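Cast an eye over this sequence plus tokens and explain the fold to me:
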Amino acid sequence: MGVLNMAKRTSKSLRETAKEYLNALSEEKARRVLRKPSLRPRKRAGRRLKASNRWQEWELALLGTASDCDVARQIGRTEEAVKGRRTNLGIPQLGKRHLWQKWEDALVGTASDSDVARQIGRTESAVRGRRVLRGIPKPILGKTFHWQEWEDALLGTASDRDIARQLGRTKVAVVQRRIHRGIPQWGKPYFWTAAEEALLGTASDRDIARQVGRREGTVRAKRIAMGIPNGGKPHFWSVAEQALLGTASDREVARQLGRSAPSVQGKRLMLRIPSWGKSKARPWTPEEDALLGTASDSEIARQIGRTEMAVLLRRRRLGIPNGGKPHFWKPEETALLGTASDSDVARRIGRTEMAVRAMRVIRGIPRGGDTFRWKAAHIALLGTASDREVARQIGRTEKSVAHKRLRLGIPKWGCWNAGEIKLLGTASDSEIARQIGRTEKSVKNKRQKLRIPMCGETIALKSKEDELPGTMSDHKIAAKVKRAVAPIHHRGRRKKITSRKAQAAKGWTEEELARMKKFLDSEAAGLTGRGKQR
């Protein structure tokens, strides 16, 4: 234990520590520790004892001072033995740091686990475990779960899909937030008019949905709620319709009767009517049976006008062996394996590519051909363009290119790096797009996804511009002062000026009030020149 304590207290090298320990031992004991034969071996009668394989003190002192591979090389043990002994003693591994820095913890939860892992140089599972340990929720497309006031103001002003595209959120999140806030859906009103209700049951739900501009499920639910029977094709089958079953394909009969193909197929199976083309099976003649086994099944099927599967089943039922290409391989055919690609060898010897590949694998012959070896020029193209484009240039499949890129750790083309993300918001989207070689729409979507304000949004409004909120719509004010809509909207909220107060200050005329009662909100807004209120 003295040597162990000395190794922990001092900062001597591993070689010097081991040398001091060996010098303190006797010559015979040192040779036994180093597993070297003695100079004067003594002959012993009976069973010869082996040297002890127990861990020595100086070996235990080396655990954790270097990597398991280096320690195993120094003490002459396997890496698995060193790792197991170190784990049992609770000694941490030396090598890659396990402590998380403050700047790394600050990035957890700001983007997806894969993006954060790529930025800080850790594995995705490590980032996920750190996020769960600290109780940070999983982000959705790089956004947090908190909704801003200006985002709530957009709900119901357009379709959920368009709002989700503007905010960089999913459609499900937008729908749930809109329902939670009690905001009706934009578009067709929920109430049904008398003319629309009169159409229910006069035709199929699909035709009525096409006429009134609603979904088929909505029309069906309204019809069932009102107790109106379906006005489409009657469900019962007439005798004339049943007589057509099996005379042609189910799709053709469905087109003639105006029904769906699954409905026709279900009725035919219920009546046990065989499918068209199988009701009149052509019997096998003695001449056709005589041809079985004289050639390959595909060749015989082509001669007698039957399918290859029918010929195969008939030949097996009669116990006739296959008369096609023999299964044994000739020496000259085996010599060609591995000299070229499997497809080229199969084309030369007249066999299938699968048969050539199976024979090559059985004999342990490596795959041949230059098409399967990656050249340095091909590897240099990975990540410079999309996998599909690189695959088209080098003549490989897209899956093969993606697999090779992932094995080499090359990021996918088009991914945003840390330098590009830092530029977002420092200038206009068009200027940043010109600098980094991306489209303006791509820059705008990435900036909105990371909740980075546009350049110029944080600038305070001037005194004259500060008086404009409330006098007209935010979009008109933004177009007039050449600013974004967001700062105008926030300034109006801060001054407690809403569009409703602005319209009330303007005053409503009797003609406008009459139009509001007569038309829908969207139509009245267009006729009166006012904004649509919710």
In short: The chain has a mean pLDDT of 76.
